[in-house]
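Subject: design request, 147 residues
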């Protein structure tokens, strides 16, 4: 995880400073955690929504970038839409996970096979220590094979 978190520090410094850390990366899922603290709080004594967004986007993005890397093709990726819902105050350590690996494999495969732009919606849910969902984010990712 050291290399992955070094990537976060170098490429997403605001996420790193907010406490966003990659906890687990497998072929099937990515788990990113962030702990509620002074740097990422809001006036309502919970974690700021933007910090949750950074952590949740990273979970979906790492899953996607991992599969793009396996393809050995140059593929551009971009978030084109996002939606978030919040169901409980985010305090303590929140874990965001994305388990949409089958969708990711299929969309990368289609991008490579067709050479046409593709889109996929990936979900990342934030769970607190009691495994209650505190927030849920959906990211629409666009993929396009580079020439």
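Subject: RE: design request

Done. Sequence follows.
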């Amino acid at each position: 995880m050291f290399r992955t978190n070094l990537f976060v520090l170098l490429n997403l410094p605001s996420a790193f400073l907010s406490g966003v850390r990659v906890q687990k990366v497998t072929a099937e899922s990515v788990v990113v955690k962030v702990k509620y603290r002074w740097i990422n709080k809001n006036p309502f004594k919970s974690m700021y929504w933007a910090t949750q967004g950074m952590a949740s986007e990273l979970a979906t993005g790492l899953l996607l970038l991992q599969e793009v890397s396996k393809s050995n093709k140059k593929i551009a990726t971009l978030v084109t839409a996002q939606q978030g819902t919040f169901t409980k105050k985010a305090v303590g350590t929140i874990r965001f996970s994305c388990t949409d690996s089958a969708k990711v494999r299929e969309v990368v495969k289609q991008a490579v096979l067709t050479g046409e732009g593709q889109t996929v919606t990936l979900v990342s849910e934030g769970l607190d220590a009691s495994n209650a969902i505190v927030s849920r984010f959906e990211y629409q990712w666009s993929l396009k094979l580079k020439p």
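The first strand starts at residue 21 and ends at 25.
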